[in-house]
Amino acid sequence: MASHKRGEKRKKVKPKIKLEKTEDPTESGELSDDSVEKVVRKKKGKTKAPKKYIGAHVSIAGGIWKAVEASVDIGGQSFGLFLGSQRSWQRPAIDKTAAVKFQQACAQHCFDPAHILPHGSYLMNCGSPKDDVFSKSQAMLVDELSRCSVLGLTQFNFHPGAAINSSKEKCIKRIAEAINHAHKQIPAVCTVLENMCGQGSTVGGQFDELKSIIDRVRDKTRVGVCLDTCHAFAAGYDISSAGGLKTVLDEFDQVVGLHYLRAVHLNDSKGKLGCHLDRHEDIGRGKIGINAFRNIVNEPRLDNLPLILETPGRNVPESEGWERGHAASDRPSLAAAAGSIPVFSEPC
Ligand SMILES: [Zn+2]
Ligand SMILES: [Zn+2]
């Protein structure tokens, strides 16, 4: 496994990434599930070979382009990042110079925008029954998508929302309303719903809740799902065995449709199956277990998706788990541990 050093170019360099106007005939209209599937399959068909794109959520401290450098340092082939402070509703805009540096770094290191998945602010609750929180969240969703556009990114992941003291049905309607509003304001960027663990009044723990949101989104080419393994397990989806993973993916396909799956967050779970607690654990140290992640990184239905680790993985003794024999911070060695996947050996 070879990680790439900063400044070192991989063999082939793509042109600078830029946001292109979609050629989909469905750009502004409402689409049926069938036609969405065809469009997505057509796009997937353009990729050369099935491949796993494993990376991690990386820091933007010191400048947004630092996320690219951090990802290169650990040999990541995909990455997640925040697009601003998680503590404030009012955030300074991303300046042009920083955006250009980010795009140049992505192009230099051959990161495809499809393998970069920004994570939304935790302040947002696009399903809030409180009008002031809803309108602030709706505005923040527009701002997040606009940041994606500035950075040349094409998709954006966020936690759908929580009903608080209202009903899940009303919450789902508001989430879809916020997404439709954001789609009107900002062209092209795809909104990606993260599945939740079913804690409290959060929406998105069950696959049918995600589908209910998708059903209400007008442009179905611009909505997708990111499957968080910890959240799924905590919500009651048993992915810990090979058979369990197959069953859960079958159910996802039946209820939502695998063509909506845009990414996976790779996290183990501190809590047991169905505990409804959002408590990530390092891979192989939680209740899901290392074998499940071996199955996940060998699952063909997860080919060509970004698989993003969200736990630091720094406190695991080298003698334990999948990190045995690798530096503790060298998280993408997960793929090497799983064997048989040439994750880092090919230029893009
Ligand atoms: Zn999340
Ligand atoms: Zn996650």
TrEMBL record:
Annotated GO CC locations: mitochondrion; nucleus
Residue ranges, compositional bias (Basic residues): 1-16
InterPro entries in the cross-refs: AP_endonuc_2, AP_endonuc_F2_Zn_BS, Xyl_isomerase-like_sf, Xyl_isomerase-like_TIM-brl
Cofactor(s) annotated in UniProt: Zn(2+)
Record field: compositional bias (Acidic residues): 25-34
Xylose isomerase-like TIM barrel domain residues: 69-326
Entry's Gene Ontology BP terms: base-excision repair
Keywords: DNA damage, DNA repair, Hydrolase, Lyase, Metal-binding, Zinc
NCBIfam families: nfo, PRK01060.1-4
Protein name: DNA-(Apurinic or apyrimidinic site) lyase
